[in-house]
Amino acid sequence: MQLKDIGEFGFIQRFATKYDSLIKQGDMGIGDDCAVLSISDTENHVITTDLLVEDVHFLKSEISAFELGHKSLAVNLSDIAAMGAQPLYSFLSVGIPKNTPVEFLDSFMEGYHHLSEKYSVPLMGGDTTKSPDKLVINVAVVGRCKKDETHLRSMAEANDIICVTGPLGDSGAGLKVMLEQLERNDINNQLVKRHHWPEPRIDEGRWLAQQKGVHAMMDISDGISSDLKHILKASGKAAAIQTDILPISLEMNKQASVYNWNRIELAAAGGEDYELLVTIQGDKYDAISQQFLKAFNKPLHPIGRITEGESSIRWFNESEEIHPDKIGFEHFK
Amino acid sequence: MQLKDIGEFGFIQRFATKYDSLIKQGDMGIGDDCAVLSISDTENHVITTDLLVEDVHFLKSEISAFELGHKSLAVNLSDIAAMGAQPLYSFLSVGIPKNTPVEFLDSFMEGYHHLSEKYSVPLMGGDTTKSPDKLVINVAVVGRCKKDETHLRSMAEANDIICVTGPLGDSGAGLKVMLEQLERNDINNQLVKRHHWPEPRIDEGRWLAQQKGVHAMMDISDGISSDLKHILKASGKAAAIQTDILPISLEMNKQASVYNWNRIELAAAGGEDYELLVTIQGDKYDAISQQFLKAFNKPLHPIGRITEGESSIRWFNESEEIHPDKIGFEHFK
User: Fold this and answer.
1) Topology annotation, domain A153-322
2) Residues A124 and A91: beta-carbon distance below 8 Å
3) b/e map of B100-109 (b: 16 or more CB within 10 Å)?
């Protein structure tokens, strides 16, 4: 039996529960965007880590070193945002092929520093070593939040409105442009840019975490069709998604017509959107949504509703139920 | 210019100082075994991370999966020990070639769990992804210690006695046995085992950290000829090392005669000993050394003395000064 037969989550399930007895009261381990470590009666540290490997997560021929440095930190800050936390510190390990030009590394570190500075997150340590052929990058980030503002995947409740903080599918469309070697016109370049330059929703995450009525939060890395299931499983709930109101950018909409892309599939399962996926108590939704618009000058997009049931998503086009074939992916499948 | 031209430390120096202005008062970033993060008026978190790449740090044909899992955590716990801290949490990222047998991964995770349990350090999170061809492992560990028991490389003072917590060079000798494909008799196997199964000196580190008179501490990963220089640079001091009293195991001593190895070179620059390197105030040394022997049933080995001067080591054989050629290595040279 090989890893590809059991998948990433199957592998994690083989050992995760062995640590339950070692985990201290008030702490939380594997299973959310970040681990939760109690540091006082009122505050938590939250920690996340992400590994990026050349030719699996990025192609050096496509992404610039500056963008790669930015993205390596951004995908971790996105996990911190998903807890409602403030990022505090980062740690960077790099495995570097011997013939890597110093200019590439300098530019990578400049992209990393650019985002570090934006959110005042100092790089506090790490490891630098050689790698036989592929560039390897591991980032870990520590954040901090009040205990009563720490938002978990398990907090969704029936009748919550499910929302996202921005359009879905641009990043997946950008990946398509690269993989299918489509013409690099302005619009396609913008989609590729959305894939290479995710903006972590730190400010939105902090703001949402402080609103009474905001329940579960997570970030969208694999696509809502896959990510929402984690919320449903952790909360013991089901969901109904309205595909007709999934937020889609003008750019993606236009290119979907040109190339005959399936908009719903890209929006639901394209992956790497790094927007926040949030569930909000039904009777608080209108007020929070209006205040969000004022605070950020952009809308919070409702996409469906949490229901009673067992971890499954039902998909609707207006009132008609549909059965999409593609429902996200795991890294090993 | 390529990375091999400037080396690992040269690369780190190009960006490390850019973060100085972002680092909060009381915290400490790049430059010690761990970063130091203040979590209250009296306590610090300390964090370390290490990246291990197949064919750079280990050969799958030589180390068992169980040993590799143990070692991946052990080298990080050793950094925690070097600060005088108690390890609290670990995080594990693995990049896995697609055809890796699940049995290998299970055994790897068992070795990791074995050491986690020994020191009650739960695995709290991480990342699992595929890798094109090499197994990639990144571990991060969080520890905790009182502020007045946090030991830095910068704390060495003139006339401190320099000590180590165990014999030096066994691990380097074990590596030699593998690389030179020497006969696998009992003694050589023991040396190889010392390379594959480092024991982090957590208990020794905690104990030493609590003794008044213990100053600088770090762990020995590259060999004292290289590691001691970090203490000297951070403390603005020099050192005199007595090569005639470097602690050498019976096994290494015996095989050095058989294979005509240079004992001093192996002990000073073999690397991966993962013993602690400690400097102790001269007038407190005798008492601490005697109490250490009682507490751990093994001696603390004195190897030299801190002196005034500029970051350099002078080497002596009894009263005669010597000039060893080999003085450690950096990963890129």
Assistant:
1) Phosphoribosyl-aminoimidazole Synthetase; Chain A, domain 2 (3.90.650)
2) yes
3) bebebbbbbb
Q: Where are the domains of chain A?
A: 3-149, 153-322
The answer to whether A255 and A180 are in contact (CB under 8 A) is: no
Name the A residues in 134-173 with CB < 8 Å from any B CB: 134, 136, 138, 140, 142
The four Cα atoms B198, B202, B207, B211 give a dihedral, to 10 degrees, of 90
Q: What is the pLDDT of residue B6?
A: 85
Nearest CA in chain B to A23: B122
Are A122 and A154 spatial neighbours (Cβ–Cβ below 8 Å)? Answer: no
Cβ–Cβ of B126/A30 closer than 8 Å? yes
Which residues from chain A sit within 8 angstroms of residue B125, using beta carbons?
A: 29-30, 34-35, 47-49
Partner-chain contact B124 A39, CB within 8 Å: no
What span, in angstroms and rounded, lies between the C-alpha atoms of B222 and B225? Answer: 8
* Terminal Cα distance for chain B, rounded: 14
CATH topology of domain B3-149: 60s Ribosomal Protein L30; Chain: A; (3.30.1330)
**DSSP-based helix, strand, coil % in chain A, nearest 5:** 40, 25, 35
Altogether, the residues listed in chain A come to a count of 333
Sign of CA dihedral A58, A59, A62, A67: positive
Lowest mean pLDDT among A4-8, A267-271, B22-26, B236-240: A4-8
Helix or strand run (H / E) with residue A295: helix A285-296
pLDDT in the model for residue B328: 45
Distance from the Cα of residue B319 to its chain's centroid:
29
- Selecting from B5, B29, B123 the residue whose C-beta is nearest the C-beta of A124 gives B29
Chain B residues inside the 8 Å CB shell of A78: none
In terms of CA atoms, which chain A residue is nearest residue B136? A136
Query: Judged by CB atoms within 8 Å, which residues 54-73 of B form the interface with A?
Result: 54-57
Helical ranges in B260-314 per DSSP H: 263-269, 285-296
Tracing tokens 């490390």 back to the chain, one arrives at: B16
Q: Chain centroid to CA B60: how far?
A: 22
Interface predicted TM-score (ipTM) of this complex, two decimals? 0.94
- Alpha carbon B16 to its chain centroid, in Å, reads 21
Do domains B3-149 and B153-322 share one topology? The answer is no
Q: Identify the bridge partners of residue B273 per DSSP, sorted by sequence position.
A: none
- d(CA B198, nearest CA chain A) in Å: 19
Give the predicted TM-score (pTM) of the model. 0.94
Distances (CA, A) of A280 to A145, A291, B106: 19, 13, 40
Q: How far apart are CA A232 and CA A308, in angstroms?
A: 10
Q: How many CB pairs under 8 A join A and B?
A: 249
